[in-house]
Amino acid sequence: MDDTHDVVVCVCMAVTEAQLLEAVARGFHDLPALREATGANTGCGDCAEDIEELVEFAGEGIGG
What we know:
The protein is mostly helical. The protein is built from three helices and two strands. The chain has helices at 17-25, 31-38, 48-61, and strands at residues 8-10, 15-16. It has a two-stranded antiparallel sheet. The longest helix has 14 residues, at 48-61.
């Protein structure tokens, strides 16, 4: 089993990298949209930079 994307990005809300990448694939391409779609970054806020980097990285694969 490949658990590469099982890394928890948002500890407060237990949102994984895989969940965030899935949301990006569904069209949620910025932090506010990902907050709404996944609940990530709605606790302490410390994960904002990590989420933005993940979106930037994922964006390279979606034509960004």
